[in-house]
Amino acid sequence: MTEQGLPDWAHEMRERDRPIFIAAAAARSGTTALHRLLNAHPDVMLHGEDPIMFDMAHICASRVIRFVQGREQYETLRRNARQQGGDEWLDVFLPQPDVLMQNAFLMFYLAARPFREDARQFGKSRWGMKKPNVGAHQVSGLSVLLRNARVIYQIRELEGVLRSGKSFYVPRGEYQPVEICRQWAARTGAWAKQIRTEQHFTLNYADLDQRPEWVVEQLSAFLELEGLTPEVLRSKVNTRKSDDPATYVAPEQLTDEELDLVRRTEAALQADLAGTALPPSGVG
Description:
Layout: H1 8-15, E1 20-24, H2 31-39, E2 44-48, H3 52-69, H4 71-82, H5 89-92, H6 97-121, E3 126-131, H7 136-145, E4 150-155, H8 158-169, H9 177-193, E5 200-204, H10 205-210, H11 212-223, H12 256-272
Parallel strand pairs: 1-3, 1-4, 2-3, 4-5
């Protein structure tokens, strides 16, 4: 066990591993293309799309921060509770904060460990996860718990998201344009306001689509990962099947009502983001 009370493997994961995470504000943002690009590298295995690491990162990191910031208060309330010296004791009678923090750390590393070990079984030194529909708060948790993690957060313009979503969800009977727009705006807005660090790379889908060589150059430097090749990005991936598997079926066109929904959503987001801005591309 380490001085933090964590197993050696968990301490190594926290301090020395260099996992990679692909996240996006919405589904249909092009994360699959990015996933294919990185997994084509001989040292990389990124799983997808299990939400557990992102969800546990938020839950566990929030719990750690809560007790770090309120340690003295909780200790005082614990003493009062044991002595029945206050009316609030039923709501705050918790175990010692250090124990709760240690367990929060451990719960996250136990959730992440199978993905790490699976990558190692295949001889991959860089492990991680791809998951769209991820919020800024979940990315923050990863940054707290994995000191050397790198997160690529992908943003795509709303019209492209909705067109691709329409093509994908209509055949399944799951197309909800209002909800797609709502979630896109909420997560994109939160990311624009997020305090980002050198662990975070904001990638616009337009760059991935229109200048893959530049994207590969930027990501190679950000991830410290030589050997990425833009050739992987030249073939489109499409979930809709056609008679010719090499044929790319373009996303559906939007109706006037859907285009109006896109414009109204974008206008509301711009008003909400007054004074903030997403970088047009690159690190930010």
